Amino acid sequence: MSATYPNRPRRVALPAAILAVLVLLVGAGVIGTEIFTIVRYVVSILALICVVLVWQARQWWWAIGLIPIAILWNPIMPIVIDDTQLFAGLHYTAALVFIVVGVGARVTDSTSRG
């Protein structure tokens, strides 16, 4: 065992959260277009992936912010929000939730790579 990097925390949901933030920021600009359906699929799926990752890390409380995102951006049974500015604001709020979850959900690995 190496003492150089003892018990380094891993951020299990960070890659999916970063991708979701990028999609949400692009999606705020394409609300009301045909591409927005793809944005809804990607955001909803990434929210569910993050839910699974934080659940497997036994930090289920992070799912409290992610499950409403998966529901609001669900393309199968969409919740229609007619106010474009409100929905763009929800995109930025959801991006903030993904950032917080991605950085905050950590697992300390007892095995080192050394």
Q: How much helicity do the residues have?
A: 55-70%
The coarse silhouette is: elongated
Strand order of the largest sheet: 1-2
Q: In percent, how much strand structure appears in the residues?
A: 5-15%
Q: Which ranges are low-confidence, i.e. pLDDT below 50, for 5 or more consecutive residues?
A: none
How many β strands by DSSP? 2
The chain-level structural class is mainly alpha
How large, in whole angstroms, is the Cα Rg? Answer: 16 Å
Number of helices, where a helix is a run of at least 4 consecutive DSSP H or I residues: 4
> What's the overall average pLDDT, rounded?
87
> Main sheet, how many strands, which sense, barrel?
2 strands, antiparallel
Quaternary structure classification: single chain
Distance between the termini: 6 Å
User: Helices and strands, in N-to-C order?
Assistant: EHHHHE
Task: Write a structural description.
By secondary structure, this protein is mainly α. It has a two-stranded antiparallel sheet. It is 58% helix and 5% strand. The model has no long low-confidence stretch (mean pLDDT 87). The N and C termini lie close together (6 Å). It is elongated and about 50 Å long.
Chain-wise SSE layout:
Elements: E1 9-11, H1 14-27, H2 36-56, H3 63-72, H4 84-104, E2 106-108
Antiparallel strand pairs: 1-2
Helix pairs in contact: 1-2, 1-4, 2-3
